[in-house]
TrEMBL record:
Family from the record: Belongs to the syntaxin family.
Pfam family, any one: Syntaxin
Annotated organism of origin: Gigaspora rosea
Annotated T-SNARE coiled-coil homology domain residues: 163-225
Example GO molecular function: SNARE binding
Protein name: t-SNARE
Length: 256
């Protein structure tokens, strides 16, 4: 019923607000990570940030699925249904609101990756100040395969600190890049994959409904045919009875 539907959309809207608040907090924590001066500080902030990112991911997936379900249910309604306009309006509103949140989150994470990459490059240059751009690009793609820090470890304690920081920042970048890729997939599902999948289901159900309607009509036609046949048989018996009565009367008259 419409009250249940409105309660569902209100719950989804509230969850989207929670997601937005989580993203704001994630941005704040990531800003703190960028300016943190010790490994322990980075670890503590990253732990809270990662927990919040996990919770936010679950909320995004859950509410994307709930919006998909509304779209699926709306597609099954005829446009003449009194609830159709309200349901489609609420669905469009929620889908746009969630897509805006996804874009905001992706933008925040892209910005964080950019700044974290810049910090990593600065750390790299501490131990390899004459590095070329190609060397930097090679290191950013595969830091474990580059020997520069192993050589520097023999020379300075600063290089040891830089090595630890670079590894942590590089792993953090990869983790956030995975989040960005997943956000892009959620956005596609919200607008493309969902519609294609649900429309297929709707078409199948539409065909099944049409077949059921035709079967029902056929049963009605068969019922009418049976009634007509029964009526025809009844008329034949009546006609036969009348003919027998007439023949009996004629026989009686002739006999007299």
């Amino acid at each position: 019923n419409i009250e249940t539907f409105l309660n569902e959309t209100a719950a989804i809207e509230k969850n989207i607000e929670t997601i937005h608040a989580n993203i704001t907090r994630i941005q704040s924590l990531q800003s703190n990570i960028l300016v943190a001066t010790s490994t322990n500080e980075v670890d503590a902030i990253s732990y809270e940030r990662n927990q919040l990112m996990g919770d936010t991911r679950q909320l995004l997936i859950e509410n994307k699925d709930r919006i998909k379900q509304i779209e699926y249910e709306n597609a099954k309604l005829p446009k003449s249904d009194p609830k159709y306009g309200l349901r489609t309006q609420r669905h469009g509103f929620l889908r746009e609101k969630l897509s805006n949140i996804l874009n905001e989150y992706r933008g925040a994470e892209d910005d964080y990756i950019k700044h974290q990459t810049e910090r990593t490059i600065r750390q790299y240059k501490i131990v390899n100040p004459n590095a070329t751009q190609q060397e930097i690009d090679d290191y950013m793609s595969s830091p474990s395969g580059q020997p520069v820090f192993q050589q520097a470890l023999l020379r300075t304690g600063e290089a040891r600190d830089a090595l630890d920081q670079v590894k942590k920042r590089h792993n953090d970048i990869k983790r956030v890049e995975e989040t960005v890729a997943e956000l892009a997939d959620l956005f596609k599902e919200l607008y493309l994959q969902v519609e294609a999948q649900d429309q297929t289901i709707v078409n199948i159900e539409g065909n099944a409904t049409e077949a059921a309607t035709k079967l029902e009509k056929a049963n009605e036609d068969l019922g009418r045919a049976r009634l007509s046949a029964a009526a025809a048989r009844k008329k034949k018996w009546i006609c036969l009875a009348i003919i027998l009565i007439i023949l009996i009367i004629i026989a009686v008259v002739v006999a007299i």
